[in-house]
Specification:
The structure holds two protein chains of two kinds. Chain A is of the alpha/beta class. Chain A has eleven helices and twelve strands. In chain B, the strands form two sheets. A six-stranded parallel sheet of chain B has the order 2-1-3-4-8-7, with helices on both faces. In chain B, helix 2 runs antiparallel to helix 4, helix 2 runs antiparallel to helix 11 and helix 6 runs parallel beside helix 7. The longest helix of chain B has 26 residues. Classes of the chains: A alpha/beta, B alpha/beta.
């Protein structure tokens, strides 16, 4: 916002003193004013649509959807307008729009405040999808998202807001379509997204004590997807598990696995596995929610079985 | 002397401008007649939603706009985009799915866009551009220019939530937008009186604290006067306006729909109120148009359309692989980064 006056924020409850539901915009409205940190009524279709219109005509809006669950209210604008207008206009339009939102399990929020809908947007031609797992990646990817001239679903995780990690004060960006190997290993590749990256790293730590070496790959952007890094990883480990919080059926894991089956079949020596939520709506009660969450124990159990040849 | 003549032409329009309006209305009518002909001959694919009967609304509105103002349009948008300045040559090329079309054959009849003239595209989703347009107006306000945006939509869009959200935000933000409802009495086959209960649309909209006016959409100059007021207000920082233009779709929802739900006597009555004939009568009575000039305009429009069709027919088809381009600015459709040079 300091660098480019065309950048502005728009969404519900984003101005101080509330500073957004997860405080991600706290302090911005006093600094940049309420024109550029534009708090809206509860009107997702209206303000996401306005974001599309502003992006088409010279502004660079960052529209905040408080929960990704609320994206459904604005789906026509996201799917039919933002993602498609460049193509439908024969390449005339540019849509430098970031839809910043958060999702995910872990706070007993039930099925209207805890979904993981990234696969829908990965399926959508014309849309880019980023899901950072660390504070460092969040800063670098968000800067890139704002500077690109294509629409981006920027999906954060509600539990990651409380995590800590090194973030340089100075300027840096992270390109879209470049995965990050969060931990190197030799026995099994775990591709994980968002919060599940942290779970996969915990699983790897547990398994290290058992002499199992796990490589954790974080795609960081789900589209564009850096499949090459994943191919290089399975080439080394010959085993692949894809883990995420969202329901298994038709999920992002299926896409990764299909591409690996297509491009790296020869490197794989064991059945490819998914560790995802069962395909049910998100339950409220903590122990029910825990039961469906792809956590470190479930990931470690699956890796162990795979490496031992039990699957 | 009849009322339509007695009133006299708007004082702020020159004879050339009045003739320009008349010519443009005839061009829209001619474009759609020819498009229908070639669609029925099987040369044009897809859907064709014609706006015959409604020409006065976009032409009256766009006469009050500048080249650098914006419009958004609908699936029934040929008239809107011609009124704003689209060249029928590139429109026919788009309908024929050729590389020379406005959207290089990727949009078709329902999605003509010309960003260079502020034509931000027609949408196939009823009401789809209504929530987008306030963002264009917000962009204008934030950039500090004196442009405006005219948002065209039909009566069918007014029952959707997006319409009400767009009105509310535009009013809240006081942005330079003119909502133009082309109320042609039918949402596809669904009649207006069954869309909203005893609804005076301008009254309903006025409760959002948006100045709202209902005009005769079969009178190009009445539409112009209302648009002029709204545009002047918007440019001066006076915020949004709403115009309901009562008009009529002479034909069915799309080519192929006989419109059996439209009573014949109703259709006949509206045909007698044809806005093109009306403006022609006015211009002749006011000494702005001779019989010879009228015939010349008709011949010029025919020649322009003939040339446009020939241009479209002789333009190349896009290579099949073109289906894979124009998805992203920075990436190809597979997600591989594009160099600056090949970004498309």
């Amino acid at each position: 916002m300091l660098r480019d006056e065309r950048v502005f924020l728009m969404g519900e409850d984003i101005a101080d003193p509330f500073g957004s539901a997860y405080k991600v915009t706290l302090g911005l409205s006093p600094e940049f004013g309420t024109d550029r940190v534009r708090q809206t009524p509860i009107s997702e279709l209206g303000f996401v649509g306005a974001g599309v219109g502003a992006a088409l005509t010279g502004m660079r809006p960052v529209v905040e959807l408080m929960y990704i669950d609320f994206s459904m209210l604005a789906m026509d604008q996201i799917v039919n307008q933002a993602a498609k207008i460049r193509y439908m206009s024969g390449g005339q339009a540019e849509v430098p729009l970031v839809i910043r939102t958060q999702g995910g399990l872990g706070r007993s929020s039930a099925a209207h405040h805890a979904q993981s809908l990234e696969a829908w947007f990965v399926h959508l031609p014309g849309m880019l999808v980023a899901m950072p797992s660390t504070p460092y990646d969040a800063k670098g990817l968000l800067k890139t998202a704002i500077r690109l001239n294509d629409p981006v679903m920027f999906i954060e995780h509600k539990l990651l807001y409380n995590t800590e990690g090194p973030v340089p004060e100075e300027e840096y960006t992270i390109p879209f379509g470049v995965a990050d190997v969060k931990r190197e290993g030799t026995d099994c590749t775990v591709v994980a997204t968002s919060m599940t990256v942290l779970k996969a790293l915990q699983a790897a730590e547990m398994l290290k004590k058992e002499g199992i070496s796990v490589e954790v790959v974080d795609p960081r952007t789900l589209f564009p997807l850096d499949i090459e890094t994943i191919i290089q990883s399975v080439r080394k480990t010959s085993r692949l598990i894809v883990a995420h919080e969202s329901p298994e059926r038709g999920g992002f894991a299926a896409e990764v696995i299909a591409q690996i089956a297509d491009k790296a079949f020869g490197y794989i020596d064991a059945p490819i596995q998914r560790v995802c939520a069962p395909s049910v709506p998100t339950p409220f009660a903590r122990h029910l929610e825990d039961f469906i969450t792809a956590d470190e124990t479930k990931i470690a159990d699956r890796v162990r079985s795979l490496v031992r040849g039990e699957i | 002397m009849s009322d339509e003549i007695k009133e006299g032409p708007p004082e702020d329009l020159t004879r050339e401008q009045l003739l320009g309006m008349y010519r443009r209305m005839r061009l829209i009518r001619g474009f759609e007649n020819r498009a229908k002909e070639h669609f029925e001959a099987g040369e044009i694919a897809g859907f064709l939603h014609l706006s015959q009967g409604q020409e006065a609304v976009p032409v009256g509105t766009c006469t009050a706009l500048r080249q650098d103002d914006y419009i958004t349009s609908t699936h029934r948008g040929h008239g809107d985009v011609i009124a704003k300045g689209c060249d029928v040559k590139y429109m026919f090329a788009e309908l024929y799915g050729r590389t020379t079309g406005y959207c290089k054959g990727k949009g078709g009849s329902m999605h003509i866009a010309d960003f260079s003239q502020g034509i931000i595209g027609a949408t196939g989703i009823v009401g789809g551009s209504v929530p987008t347009a306030p963002g264009i107006a917000l962009s204008i306000k934030m950039r500090g220019t004196d442009q405006v945006v005219a948002c065209f939509f039909g009566d069918g869009a007014t029952a959707g939530g997006g319409f009400h959200e767009a009105l509310n935000l535009s009013s809240l933000w006081q942005v330079p937008i003119i909502f133009v409802c082309q109320n042609n009495l039918y949402a596809l086959s669904h009649p207006w009186e069954k869309t909203a209960y005893k609804c005076e649309l301008s009254y309903r909209v006025s409760t959002y604290n948006i100045p709202a006016e209902c005009v005769d959409g079969m009178d190009a100059l009445a539409v112009y006067r209302a648009a002029r007021k709204a545009v002047d207000r918007a440019r001066a920082g006076g915020g949004p306006s709403f115009i309901e233009a009562k008009t009529y779709r002479f034909l069915g929802h799309y080519v192929g729909d006989p419109g059996l739900y439209m009573p014949p006597e109703e259709r006949e009555a509206w045909r007698k109120r044809d806005a093109i004939l009306k403006l022609g009568r006015q211009l002749r009575a006011w000494g702005c148009l001779t019989e010879e000039e009228d015939a010349q305009i008709a011949a010029d429009v025919d020649a322009e359309l003939e040339g446009a069709i020939a241009f479209a027919q002789s333009s190349p088809l896009p290579p099949p692989e073109d289906a894979l381009t124009d998805v992203y600015v920075h990436f190809d459709y597979l997600g591989n980064p594009l160099d600056e040079g090949e970004q498309r």
